[in-house]
Write a structure and sequence with these properties.
The protein is α+β, with helices and mostly antiparallel strands. Helix content is 51%, strand content 12%. The chain has 13 helices and 11 strands. The protein has a 4-stranded antiparallel β-sheet with strand order 8-5-10-9. A 3-stranded antiparallel β-sheet has the order 2-1-11. Strand 1 and strand 2 form a beta hairpin. Helix 5 crosses helix 12 and helix 6 packs antiparallel against helix 7.
Length: 412
C-alpha cells in the first residue's frame, strides 16, 4: 500500500502511545521543508507510524523475532541500516510527503469540501476526546493530529485530481473499464470436499460417491447454454450439496452422541413469537441475486514478488484454471490437490453485470482507479519530495527517539 494511504490506517492504533513529551523552543520543529516547518508533534506521530512499519518489516524477515523486546528490535538491520536510522528515515519520508501534498493541493486550487470538513470535525471530536491524554503526554497536540487527518483527505483528493476518470492525467472510463475486465473474473463454483469435518480424507467409497455426484451435476449443467439457466442450476446444486453435507454431519453426530447408557440423545430448539397471548411463527426469505458468485482477481507480480507473497482465492489451481483455460458459460470440473476438493465451476461474462446498479458503481470505479494508479501517484510524490529543500533539526530528531515511546500505554 502506498505511504499516503497507510497513514490514515494508523490513527486508531496511534492511541497506544504513551510517555514522550515535546517541549523546548529549539525542538519545536523537526524539519523545515521548502520553507514550511514540520511541528514536532507531527514528526512524533509519523515516527510512530514508521516504528510500526519497522515491526512489520522485521516480522516479514523473521517471524520468530520477539518484536516486543525493544532492545532486540533496535539491534536489527533493515535495508542495510540499523533499525533506529531506518525509522527516522521513514518518518522523514512521511513528513516530506505531508508537505508535498499540502503544497500541491494548494497549488492546483483544491479545497476540502464542507462534507470532508464535517467528517474531520466529527472524527476529531470522538478521536481526540478519547485519546487526548495519551497524545498530549507524547507531545502531540490536537492541532497536529487534525493536520495529519486533513492530510489524508488532501492526499486522496489530490490523487483523484490527477488519476480519476477525466482527471489531469487523462484517464478514461474505457481504460478503467478494460483494466477491470482484464484483471477480474466472474465465476460460480460449488466445492465438493474430499475430507470430512475433521480434515481427514474420505475413504475410497466416500471419494467415489463425491466423484459420481460431481460428474452427475456436471452433466446436468452442460445441457444448459443460457447464463441465467446455468446460474439457477448452480444455485440449486449448491443448495443440494449443502443439504447433503448437513445430513452427513447429522448422521455422524447421531452415531456418536449417546448418553451414559449408550442411548442416542437429541436436542430440539423451537423459537416462537408471542403476541396478545397467541403463538405465531414468521418466516422471512430474502433472495440475494448472484449470492453464490465470486470475483477472482488476477494475481499480478513483479520481479520483487515471490510466490509465497501471493494470496490466491480460493486457490492457485482455481485461479490458473479461470485465467488460462475457462471458457464463458462452459462448466468444468477441476480437481484441487491443495484443498482436497473437486470444484464444479463456470466462468461468466463479467461485463453482463458491469452497470451502475450492480458491480460497476462509482465507488467501484474509484477502487479500480486506485489499484491502477497508486504506484504512479507514489512516483509523483517521490519526484516532488526529491526536488524539495529539506533542513533537519538534528536536536529534535535526537530528542524524539521512537524507542523511548511506551507503546503499551504504560511507563517503560
Amino acid at each position: 500500500m502506498a505511504n499516503w494511504k497507510r497513514i490514515a490506517a494508523a490513527f486508531t492504533a496511534a492511541a497506544m502511545m504513551g510517555s514522550l513529551t515535546a517541549c523546548g523552543s529549539n525542538t519545536a520543529y523537526a524539519f523545515t521543508i521548502d520553507g514550511e516547518q514540520v511541528k514536532a508533534g507531527i514528526y512524533i506521530y509519523y515516527s510512530y507510524v514508521a516504528y510500526n512499519d519497522a515491526i512489520t518489516t522485521l516480522t516479514e524477515q523473521n517471524a520468530e523475532l520477539d518484536t516486543t523486546d525493544k532492545d532486540l528490535v533496535k539491534d536489527q538491520i533493515i535495508d542495510d541500516v540499523d533499525t533506529l536510522t531506518w525509522i527516522q528515515n521513514k518518518a522523514q519520508d512521511y513528513c516530506e510527503e505531508h508537505i508535498a501534498v499540502n503544497k500541491d493541493f494548494d497549488a492546483v486550487g483544491l479545497t476540502l469540501t464542507e462534507e470532508e470538513i464535517s467528517e474531520i470535525d466529527a472524527t476529531m471530536e470522538s478521536f481526540w476526546g478519547t485519546n487526548e491524554e495519551v497524545f498530549e503526554e507524547n507531545g502531540i497536540s490536537e492541532a497536529s493530529i487534525r493536520e495529519v487527518m486533513e492530510y489524508t483527505y488532501k492526499a486522496s483528493d489530490l490523487f483523484l485530481y490527477y488519476y480519476d476518470i477525466d482527471g489531469e492525467e487523462g484517464v478514461t472510463e474505457e481504460e478503467v473499464h478494460d483494466h477491470y475486465v482484464e484483471n477480474n473474473a466472474r465465476v460460480q463454483y460449488v466445492r465438493f470436499d474430499l475430507v470430512d469435518g475433521t480434515g481427514a480424507e474420505l475413504d475410497a467409497d466416500g471419494q467415489a460417491e463425491i466423484e459420481e455426484m460431481v460428474n452427475d451435476y456436471l452433466a446436468a449443467v452442460e445441457k444448459l447454454k443460457d447464463e441465467d439457466e446455468i446460474g439457477e442450476k448452480m444455485d440449486e446444486i449448491q443448495e443440494e450439496y449443502n443439504a447433503y453435507v448437513t445430513s452427513v454431519s447429522e448422521e455422524a453426530v447421531a452415531a456418536t452422541a449417546t448418553d451414559a447408557e449408550g442411548n442416542v440423545t437429541t436436542t430440539t430448539t423451537t423459537t416462537t413469537t408471542l403476541a396478545e397471548g397467541e403463538t405465531t411463527t414468521t418466516t422471512t426469505t430474502t433472495t440475494v441475486p448472484y449470492a453464490n458468485e465470486s470475483i477472482v482477481v488476477k494475481a499480478t507480480t513483479d520481479e520483487d514478488t515471490s510466490e509465497e507473497d501471493i494470496t490466491y482465492s480460493p486457490s492457485k489451481t482455481i485461479h490458473d484454471f479461470v485465467y488460462d483455460e475457462a471458457e464463458i458459460n462452459k462448466p468444468e470440473v477441476v480437481y484441487d490437490e491443495e484443498n482436497k476438493a473437486y470444484y464444479l465451476i463456470v466462468r461468466y461474462d463479467i461485463e453482463e453485470r458491469m452497470n451502475e446498479e450492480d458491480i460497476w458503481t462509482e465507488d467501484q470505479k474509484t477502487s479500480v482507479v486506485s489499484s491502477m494508479f497508486s504506484d504512479s501517484f507514489q512516483e509523483k510524490l517521490d519526484e516532488w519530495c526529491a526536488a524539495m529543500d529539506v533542513q533537519v533539526n538534528e536536536a529534535a530528531i535526537k530528542r524524539y527517539d521512537p524507542f523511548e515511546i511506551d507503546f503499551t500505554g504504560e511507563d517503560a
